[in-house]
Design brief:
single chain; 415 residues; alpha+beta; FAD/NAD(P)-binding domain; six-stranded antiparallel β-sheet; three-stranded mixed β-sheet; 26% helix; 20% strand; globular; binds flavin-adenine dinucleotide
């Protein structure tokens, strides 16, 4: 099959397929925009070495403002065909006694209202999401990247792939970069010297680079924690087959607005997800985030010249059991069953994937408590690789808030 750069990558490891955004803006280009701040009482389990007080007073608010996070107008939501699927999700959750919670998003709600009125180009209401939104979503090129560009001090080089970072003879680091075309072929290899290098290639990208560079001797002083503490945020998907009197709608907004919170009792927070096929499916669809303790490790494989990940597909059973704490009960109450046709023949659970890779250069282990990589001063990790495997909710607000916290300290002390 021909390959092209961007926009959604499904990267296969032995036990799991990891979905990631590719392009300037990373996952913000393809994600569902669900912008969830975890409940404060759950934060110590997410980032045990970080002071919750500073996160909830300063860095979560700063991240939410920087990302343009807002909440849907519930009166509007109640009245729209495109959120019928979510109202069905609410009805079923509440009838089984589960808390149904609205969650904020980075989508522009005024724009979505105009989509519903037929006044503008449709994006969320045209099913756009995992292959990118052409309008309406405040992905990073409209927020943080626009602010950075406005300083006049930032150059962005699209279609460039970092292949090596190593200490430079003159001090600082030599960074080797391939400029690629849209088939991925290398056009030219460039070398730059930098005093400081921030790894922001995502949990998988940063972990793969650091694991290889340590093992092959380019960055030999990185510590033994590199590549460790990787988790899938407990992601598991499923669908339920509703009765004919509970249609979920032919028009479904691709931007989720709500979840079912059974974290404390059953270890699962389930996003009430759209299934925007354009036809009536009578299906309710969910992405569960679960409290799985499973963690994998990246390692260098000299035989293949690639980085492996030690994830075992069987580990997803823990997440399935936690998701079932919600959906077995709802099915029993509603007299409904799981869909068996969404992930292959007669398969209930989407247990082969994650959308939420986290860890591999864990804060306070591979780095100090602010993301400075141990062993090589001037190298930093500043992305999802810092978070040890689970955020209890969708992760990008926490990744952003942690980056805000760390960069403030690094600018004050290191520059
Ligand atoms: C389909 C989908 C839906 C999602 N929905 C949500 C949601 O609703 N809410 C939520 O909170 N989270 C969601 N996520 C997850 C969220 O998008 C990620 O957690 C987040 O983007 C991770 O941010 P990051 O900065 O760690 O890395 P990324 O956003 O992955 O950015 C890393 C960037 O670095 C680039 N890169 C990698 N290697 C190299 C290299 N060697 N050289 C140069 N560049 C490199 C990548 O191409 C990418 O552009 C979703 C993810 C997917 C895939």
């Amino acid at each position: 099959m021909p390959v092209h750069t961007g926009i959604l990558d499904a990267e296969d490891f032995a036990g799991i397929t990891v979905y990631q955004g590719r392009g300037v803006g990373g996952g913000s280009l393809v994600n569902g925009g669900m912008a969830v701040t975890p409940l404060r009482e759950r934060f110590p389990a997410i980032l045990p070495t970080v002071d919750p007080a500073e996160m909830y007073s300063t860095y979560y608010p700063r991240a939410n403002a920087g990302l343009g996070v807002t909440s849907v107008d519930v009166n509007w939501w109640e009245s729209q065909d495109c959120y019928q699927y979510a109202r069905v999700g609410r009805k079923h959750a509440e009838r089984s006694g589960f808390p149904f919670v609205f969650v904020p998003n980075v989508y522009d709600w005024d724009y979505m209202a105009q989509e519903a009125a037929g006044a503008v180009q449709k994006s969320a209401l045209a099913g756009e999401v995992i292959y990118g939104n052409n309008a309406g979503k405040k992905s990073l090129q409209k927020t943080y990247l626009a602010q950075a560009a406005a300083t006049g001090r930032v150059n962005v080089s699209p279609l460039h792939r970092v292949t090596s970072v190593s200490p430079a003879a003159a001090g600082g680091y030599t960074v080797v970069i391939d400029q690629i075309d849209t088939t991925g072929a290398t056009l030219v290899t460039k070398t730059v010297r930098a005093d400081r290098v921030f790894f922001a290639a995502g949990s998988v990208g940063t972990s793969k680079l650091l694991t290889r560079l340590k093992a092959t001797g380019a960055l030999p002083l990185l510590n033994e924690q590199i590549g460790k503490g990787w988790g899938d945020n407990g992601n598991v998907m499923c669908g339920r087959a509703n009765h004919m009197w509970d249609p979920t709608g032919t028009l479904q907004s691709s931007m989720p607005t709500a979840g079912i919170d059974n974290w404390d009792a059953g270890g699962a927070f389930a996003e009430v997800a759209p299934l925007p096929t354009g036809i009536e499916t009578y299906a309710s669809f969910y992405l569960s985030i679960t409290r799985t303790p499973r963690r994998a490790e990246f390692s260098w494989n000299p035989a293949t010249g690639k980085v492996d990940l030690s994830w075992d597909r069987a580990w997803k059973q823990t997440s399935i059991d936690m998701a079932r704490s919600i959906f077995d009960k709802i099915n029993s109450k509603e007299g409904t069953i799981y869909r068996t046709d969404l992930f292959g023949a007669y398969k209930i659970w989407g247990d082969h994937l994650t959308y939420h890779p986290l860890g591999g250069a864990v804060l306070g282990q591979a780095t100090d408590n602010y993301g400075r990589l141990h062993g090589h001063p001037g190298l930093y990790a500043i992305d999802g690789s810092l978070i040890p495997g689970n955020t209890s909710v969708n992760p990008f607000v926490t990744i952003t808030a942690l980056a805000e916290r760390n960069i403030e300290r690094i600018i004050a002390e290191d520059f």
